[in-house]
Write a structure and sequence with these properties.
alpha/beta; TIM Barrel; 17 helices; 8 strands; 50% helix; carboxy-lyase activity
Length: 351
Amino acid sequence: MSYLRIATEEAYGPAELFDLYRELLPDTDDIGFRSLMGHYLTSDADRPRFVRSRLQDLGETRLSEMDATGIHHAVLALTSPGTQVLEDKHAREMATLANERIAEAVRKYPSRFSGLAAVGFEDIPSAVDELERAVTKLGLKGLICNSHIKGHYLDEPRFRPLLEAAEALDVPVYLHPNTPPNDMIRPMYEAGIDGAIFGFGVETATHLLRIITSGVFDRFPRLKLVVGHLGEALPYWFYRLDYMHAGQVASKRYEAIKPLELKVSEYFRRNIWLTTSGMPWAPTIMYAREVVGPDRVMYAMDYPYEYVPEEVRMQDELPLNPEELKEFFQDNAIRVFGLDEAVLKGQESGR
């Protein structure tokens, strides 16, 4: 191909993290965590067994399956729910462990892997220190946030130092889905639609919209945020979001809704990038490119939760010219994550 396929939402989970999750499962009152990890860590069905084994691999198995689908490079990040269901001490320890493991894989296979940093979100000074260490010392390329932190969201003032650090380091925050918190999940859980089929998107779209409407991007205008699944359906709502937000500002109905410097939709063209993880369908990709701009949409597979080789071919066959395909698969990711093109194209084979 005339371009490298860079997959930008690829999950990793150390065995030690899964051991902690198993300890939590019997006593947790978190419906979403019990639904998600109770399935993936205890079911003997083919899919959860595949996901369990692949999440823990940072070597030959992952690389061989990347090769089989033509994926040249993967941006690795700690799987959902990450550190965000753990107590503070364990959250900090697991973030450090995951960052070290990912950095080790990057050093071993520099043309094949890069990675995002995890942090423990409840201790913000420690989280800032770990993000700075992971970026400046370990060479990681951003921050993974597996959406809500025990029902709390990044628009809350206590998280501002972490967002300020990401902006100062010029690295993106990747807002990855999580199951909804208990206040949101019950109707979806009762219907069996709380996970990837629907609940993930509802929860993460809510988080992203809170970030926008609270003025986070006015406070941090150079902050970069990446979100998967083509923006969790929010691009389809642009007209309504802009119209209704303006009406709410004028009516002063909600204390939380204040005037913004831009329209809601315009932040997607300044601060937000979308990936195609789990959304390989050409009509939705082309629509997203039209409304947010082709420089804002990039490829992702969502391995190992989504490992469908056919989906790569589907995106190779998008109605785009070679230069547009190169931008979609390669160039946008290089720009957003600050990847080194010379390293990506180096002689090191990663095997």
